[in-house]
Design goal:
Elements (H helix, E strand, L loop, with lengths): L5 H5 L3 H29 L4 H26 L6 H14 L12 H29 L7 H30 L18 H4 L3
Protein backbone atom coordinates (compact mmCIF):
# COMPACT_ATOMS: atom_id res chain seq x y z
CA UNK A 1 0.00 0.00 0.00
CA UNK A 2 1.29 3.45 -0.94
CA UNK A 3 1.90 5.66 2.03
CA UNK A 4 0.61 9.21 1.60
CA UNK A 5 2.28 11.79 3.80
CA UNK A 6 0.95 15.23 4.65
CA UNK A 7 3.67 16.77 2.53
CA UNK A 8 2.90 14.70 -0.57
CA UNK A 9 -0.83 15.26 -0.18
CA UNK A 10 -0.35 19.02 -0.29
CA UNK A 11 2.29 19.07 -3.03
CA UNK A 12 1.00 21.13 -5.99
CA UNK A 13 0.92 19.51 -9.42
CA UNK A 14 2.83 20.80 -12.46
CA UNK A 15 -0.22 22.69 -13.73
CA UNK A 16 -0.58 24.58 -10.47
CA UNK A 17 3.15 25.32 -10.39
CA UNK A 18 3.04 26.69 -13.93
CA UNK A 19 0.02 28.83 -13.05
CA UNK A 20 1.79 30.37 -10.07
CA UNK A 21 4.98 30.88 -12.08
CA UNK A 22 3.25 32.68 -14.93
CA UNK A 23 1.10 34.80 -12.63
CA UNK A 24 4.14 35.87 -10.65
CA UNK A 25 5.85 36.96 -13.85
CA UNK A 26 2.68 38.73 -14.97
CA UNK A 27 2.62 40.66 -11.71
CA UNK A 28 6.22 41.66 -12.30
CA UNK A 29 5.35 42.71 -15.84
CA UNK A 30 2.62 44.98 -14.53
CA UNK A 31 5.03 46.63 -12.12
CA UNK A 32 7.51 46.99 -14.98
CA UNK A 33 4.98 48.71 -17.22
CA UNK A 34 4.24 51.22 -14.47
CA UNK A 35 7.94 51.87 -13.90
CA UNK A 36 8.76 52.36 -17.59
CA UNK A 37 5.79 54.69 -18.08
CA UNK A 38 6.84 56.78 -15.09
CA UNK A 39 10.43 56.99 -16.35
CA UNK A 40 9.33 58.05 -19.83
CA UNK A 41 7.14 60.79 -18.36
CA UNK A 42 9.90 62.00 -16.04
CA UNK A 43 12.44 62.26 -18.86
CA UNK A 44 10.08 63.24 -21.67
CA UNK A 45 11.97 66.50 -22.35
CA UNK A 46 15.41 64.84 -22.51
CA UNK A 47 17.15 62.96 -25.31
CA UNK A 48 16.52 59.75 -23.36
CA UNK A 49 12.78 60.39 -23.28
CA UNK A 50 12.03 59.09 -26.77
CA UNK A 51 13.77 55.76 -26.20
CA UNK A 52 12.11 55.34 -22.80
CA UNK A 53 8.72 55.97 -24.42
CA UNK A 54 9.49 53.27 -26.98
CA UNK A 55 10.53 50.88 -24.22
CA UNK A 56 7.35 51.61 -22.27
CA UNK A 57 5.30 50.67 -25.34
CA UNK A 58 7.34 47.51 -25.87
CA UNK A 59 7.03 46.23 -22.29
CA UNK A 60 3.29 46.89 -22.46
CA UNK A 61 3.12 44.73 -25.60
CA UNK A 62 5.24 42.07 -23.86
CA UNK A 63 2.76 41.90 -21.00
CA UNK A 64 -0.10 41.42 -23.45
CA UNK A 65 1.86 38.69 -25.21
CA UNK A 66 2.26 36.87 -21.92
CA UNK A 67 -1.46 37.16 -21.25
CA UNK A 68 -2.16 35.62 -24.66
CA UNK A 69 0.16 32.73 -23.86
CA UNK A 70 -1.54 32.20 -20.51
CA UNK A 71 -4.92 32.14 -22.25
CA UNK A 72 -3.63 29.56 -24.74
CA UNK A 73 -2.41 27.43 -21.84
CA UNK A 74 -5.71 27.83 -19.93
CA UNK A 75 -3.88 29.48 -17.03
CA UNK A 76 -6.28 31.62 -14.98
CA UNK A 77 -5.34 35.07 -13.77
CA UNK A 78 -4.59 35.36 -10.05
CA UNK A 79 -5.59 38.96 -9.41
CA UNK A 80 -4.24 39.01 -5.86
CA UNK A 81 -0.75 38.35 -7.24
CA UNK A 82 -1.09 41.22 -9.69
CA UNK A 83 -2.06 43.44 -6.77
CA UNK A 84 1.08 42.39 -4.91
CA UNK A 85 3.11 43.42 -7.95
CA UNK A 86 1.51 46.87 -7.95
CA UNK A 87 2.19 47.30 -4.24
CA UNK A 88 5.80 46.21 -4.68
CA UNK A 89 6.34 48.79 -7.44
CA UNK A 90 4.89 51.55 -5.29
CA UNK A 91 7.02 50.50 -2.34
CA UNK A 92 10.05 50.73 -4.61
CA UNK A 93 9.41 54.44 -5.04
CA UNK A 94 10.14 54.93 -1.35
CA UNK A 95 13.79 53.89 -1.70
CA UNK A 96 16.15 56.44 -0.24
CA UNK A 97 17.92 58.40 -2.95
CA UNK A 98 19.71 61.03 -0.89
CA UNK A 99 16.75 63.44 -0.96
CA UNK A 100 13.46 63.24 0.90
CA UNK A 101 11.19 65.09 -1.53
CA UNK A 102 12.77 66.02 -4.85
CA UNK A 103 14.43 63.70 -7.34
CA UNK A 104 18.18 63.33 -7.57
CA UNK A 105 20.37 61.76 -10.28
CA UNK A 106 20.46 58.72 -8.00
CA UNK A 107 16.71 58.31 -8.59
CA UNK A 108 17.41 57.74 -12.27
CA UNK A 109 20.10 55.15 -11.56
CA UNK A 110 17.87 53.20 -9.17
CA UNK A 111 15.00 53.23 -11.65
CA UNK A 112 17.18 52.09 -14.55
CA UNK A 113 18.63 49.29 -12.44
CA UNK A 114 15.18 48.19 -11.27
CA UNK A 115 13.99 48.19 -14.89
CA UNK A 116 17.04 46.14 -15.92
CA UNK A 117 16.34 43.57 -13.19
CA UNK A 118 12.78 43.28 -14.47
CA UNK A 119 13.90 42.79 -18.07
CA UNK A 120 16.43 40.13 -17.03
CA UNK A 121 13.62 38.27 -15.25
CA UNK A 122 11.47 38.54 -18.37
CA UNK A 123 14.29 37.05 -20.45
CA UNK A 124 14.25 33.99 -18.20
CA UNK A 125 10.48 33.72 -18.61
CA UNK A 126 10.80 33.70 -22.40
CA UNK A 127 13.60 31.11 -22.20
CA UNK A 128 11.40 28.90 -20.04
CA UNK A 129 8.44 29.20 -22.41
CA UNK A 130 10.60 28.60 -25.47
CA UNK A 131 11.89 25.38 -23.89
CA UNK A 132 8.35 24.33 -23.01
CA UNK A 133 7.20 25.01 -26.58
CA UNK A 134 9.13 21.92 -27.66
CA UNK A 135 6.69 19.84 -25.59
CA UNK A 136 3.56 21.97 -25.88
CA UNK A 137 2.26 22.92 -29.32
CA UNK A 138 0.05 25.63 -27.81
CA UNK A 139 3.15 27.81 -27.40
CA UNK A 140 4.61 29.42 -30.52
CA UNK A 141 8.32 28.89 -29.96
CA UNK A 142 9.36 31.21 -32.80
CA UNK A 143 7.23 34.06 -31.44
CA UNK A 144 8.68 33.54 -27.97
CA UNK A 145 12.16 33.61 -29.51
CA UNK A 146 11.39 37.01 -31.00
CA UNK A 147 10.21 38.23 -27.60
CA UNK A 148 13.46 37.00 -26.06
CA UNK A 149 15.51 38.84 -28.69
CA UNK A 150 13.57 42.02 -28.00
CA UNK A 151 14.14 41.67 -24.26
CA UNK A 152 17.88 41.38 -24.91
CA UNK A 153 17.75 44.63 -26.89
CA UNK A 154 15.80 46.27 -24.07
CA UNK A 155 18.46 45.24 -21.55
CA UNK A 156 21.19 46.67 -23.79
CA UNK A 157 19.29 49.95 -24.18
CA UNK A 158 18.89 50.30 -20.42
CA UNK A 159 22.59 49.71 -19.86
CA UNK A 160 23.42 52.28 -22.55
CA UNK A 161 21.40 54.82 -20.55
CA UNK A 162 22.60 53.70 -17.12
CA UNK A 163 26.32 54.18 -17.71
CA UNK A 164 26.10 57.90 -18.57
CA UNK A 165 23.75 58.39 -15.59
CA UNK A 166 26.41 56.83 -13.36
CA UNK A 167 29.02 59.17 -14.79
CA UNK A 168 26.81 62.18 -14.24
CA UNK A 169 26.06 61.20 -10.64
CA UNK A 170 29.42 60.00 -9.39
CA UNK A 171 32.11 61.51 -11.63
CA UNK A 172 31.11 65.13 -12.26
CA UNK A 173 33.61 67.42 -10.56
CA UNK A 174 32.00 69.43 -7.73
CA UNK A 175 31.45 73.04 -8.72
CA UNK A 176 32.51 72.49 -12.31
CA UNK A 177 29.12 73.72 -13.54
CA UNK A 178 29.48 71.97 -16.87
CA UNK A 179 29.79 68.58 -18.46
CA UNK A 180 32.55 67.70 -20.94
CA UNK A 181 31.59 67.43 -24.58
CA UNK A 182 30.43 63.99 -25.63
CA UNK A 183 33.09 61.81 -27.23
CA UNK A 184 32.56 61.63 -30.97
CA UNK A 185 30.11 64.52 -31.01
CA UNK A 186 26.31 64.21 -30.91
CA UNK A 187 24.04 64.38 -27.90
CA UNK A 188 25.56 64.68 -24.45
CA UNK A 189 23.86 61.88 -22.52
CA UNK A 190 25.25 63.30 -19.30
CA UNK A 191 23.15 66.41 -19.83
CA UNK A 192 20.19 64.29 -20.83
CA UNK A 193 19.73 63.09 -17.23
CA UNK A 194 20.15 66.50 -15.57
CA UNK A 195 17.00 67.91 -13.92
Amino acid sequence: MTRVTKHSARAPGPGRMLSVYLNDHLAGAGAGVTLFCRMSQTHTATPAGRRLTELAAEVTEDRESQREIMTALDVPLMHHRSLLGILAERAGRLKLNGRFVSRSPLSTILELEAARVGVEGKKELWRTLRARSRMDSRIDGEAVGRLLARAERQADALETMRLPALELTFHTEPGSGSSPAPRGGGISWRRSWAH
